[in-house]
Design a protein that fits this description.
Layout: E1 6-14, H1 21-24, H2 44-47, E2 70-73, H3 85-93, E3 97-100, H4 105-113, E4 117-120, H5 123-133, E5 140-144, E6 149-151, E7 157-159, H6 164-172, H7 176-182, H8 184-197
Parallel strand pairs: 1-2, 2-3, 3-4
Antiparallel strand pairs: 1-5, 5-6, 6-7
Length: 201
């Protein structure tokens, strides 16, 4: 998992409430267990028309936001089913941070496990960030995880809270496997000691 330290990117405004995981990655794309290749299906039903062509009105299809790295979204983002493909699709598209007033619990947890930072802000702060994100290619935000601040294009800052253990994992690029590998020396020592004490096991 890539480390998340100080991250700067274009922020796309998506002021829609209750964006569920089926909107993020529709069910027909869940046949794979690979984490790559899902970015093209992100928000498929909103990004494409019935004939398969691009919906030019959807925010991520607009030239200024095609390479957006941050989403500023409405309340209750990631609700619905618990599919881990949702953060996989966001990450494969290039989204490293989602900002909202609230998130569904399972989606919120899955984001941290996959290298995405979900940031909770107040309604007033969200309105300010949506305004910042509405500036097209000038809608650049900087997410400073170490100091827990969002820096806007006009120099303003918004502080945010994050669980310190999850912060440690993101800063160091540690998913569940990475956390286990950190303890590899202790695991190895235990296994050796156990083998000596119980050679028949």
């Amino acid at each position: 998992m890539d480390k998340f330290e100080t991250f700067t990117g274009v922020a796309a405004p998506l002021p829609i409430i209750n964006i569920d995981t089926d909107m993020i990655i529709p069910k027909q794309f869940l046949k794979t267990i690979k984490r790559t290749g899902l970015g093209t299906a992100l928000f498929h039903e909103m990004r494409t028309n019935d004939d398969g062509s691009e919906n030019e009105d959807f925010i991520l299809n607009k030239p200024a936001y095609r390479n957006a790295k941050i989403l500023v979204a409405g309340d209750n983002f990631g609700c619905g089913s618990s599919r881990e493909h949702a953060p996989w699709a966001l990450l494969d598209f290039g989204i490293r941070c989602v900002i909202s007033t609230s998130f569904a619990d399972i989606f919120y947890n899955n984001c941290f496990k996959n290298g995405i930072l979900p940031v909770k802000v107040s309604e007033e702060e969200l309105e300010k960030l949506l305004d910042d994100a509405d500036r097209g290619s000038n809608s650049t935000l900087t997410i400073d995880l170490e100091n827990q601040v969002i820096k806007g294009p006009d120099g303003g800052e918004i502080s945010f809270e994050v669980d310190q253990f999850r912060k440690h994992c993101l800063l160091n690029g540690l998913d569940d496997i990475g956390l286990t590998m950190e303890k590899a020396p202790k695991i190895g020592a235990f296994e050796s000691k156990n083998q000596e004490a119980r050679p028949w096991a």
